[in-house]
Known about the structure:
Chain A is an all-alpha fold and 177 residues long. Helices cover 76% and strands 0% of the residues of chain A. Chain B is built from nine helices and seven strands; from the N terminus they run H-H-H-H-H-H-H-E-H-E-E-E-E-E-E-H.
Amino acid sequence: MNDEQARARFENLTLPLMKDAYNLARWLMRNEEDAQDVVQDSYVKAFRFFESFRTEGNVRAWFLRIVRNTCYDALKTRNVKERELVPEGEINDIPDAAPGPRASVVAKATIETVREAIAALPADFREIVVLRELEGLSYKEISEVAGIPLGTVMSRLSRARDQLQLSLRERKEHDDL
Amino acid sequence: MNCEECQEFIDACIDNELDAATTIAVERHLRECAACAQILEARKGLRELLGQPELAFDVPDSLRTRVLSSLPAAPAKPKERADRFRQRVVIPWFSVPMALAAVLAIVFGLALLRPGWLTGGAEDRTLAAQVIQGHIRSLLATHLLDVPSTDQHTVKPWFAGKLEFSPPVQDFAQHGFDLIGGRLDYLDRQEVAALVYRRNKHIINLFIGPSKSGHAAPVQSFSQNGYNVLHWERGGFFFWAVSDVRMDDLRAFADLEMQLL
């Protein structure tokens, strides 16, 4: 394959994924400018490693994994700021999956409220919610993108949804007061 | 199936990720158990909220252009990359004395003809010859641009992570010097940023690297085989501008560049 064909093939496969890539980056970086930088870097990286992509592989999972890792690399370099946003305790202090929060039925919520609730999730949970609920990836694809076993995908998604329901209910109660 | 098992599998069940047998077992339990059925309802409500298409962020229009212009022409093949690196750095042993002899001949020849020309050191003159070679090489090969872009905000970040310094990048299109992109190059055995400008149909290469002295240095000019070269140092960087445009034009370009730092 010559260079021109390789570039055309790369573009055909990855350009349609820009919305997925941008949204994942947007949710993980939690700001528009960083998300754009990450997406640009991810494309350059993906192009550099395009040889390593197997033809029969899942291009979406392959590419989103690059985006995800680029996000975490970028977050590491600005980790001071990030730690301020997500206190350590919050990550370890997730309520157990008691029937209470699990069963809390979420009534109507505005787009803004839902966005706030997702943005407030710890990174691990936010990532899995975005990949499953907003980007519609299968468990197997999520496992590939996030680099975690299938069983962990299942349990983490479950806990992330509990947390999100709880957070949405709290926001609703707060608004109603 | 008991409640605990049902709750363990309920998410996988609504996501259609369970095998048929477990799905049937979960569904049977849900029909019989009000508490677990309530969890299912909560999940359905959540799914509805998260399924709103308005939640997705729209991709900014500029991002696509930005991505396309930041992609190099071809994906790197590790072997080729190493070869290219070696080609640039390794100079055949016999060419060194020959190049030195040529440079000396030119220097002395010019010195005899025009004594006033010898303002710069011999070192600078050797570098000027290298700069001209670099310029010619960039025009011969298909390697003029690694990052083809007329946007200085695309070109500058492209160098980040590839060089240990961040070169000043400015478009002078309004003065007739159009920025068309940049690439990595070598000069004096170190990596430098090469910015490429177009003046009418002529190409100007501007090599930028970190200045060794750190002091500002006045402009020196060199000419050879129809190529004009200007060298100056400012703001912690050295600059080599090279082109086949007229010296007046190249000076105007250097003046623009110097106004920034």
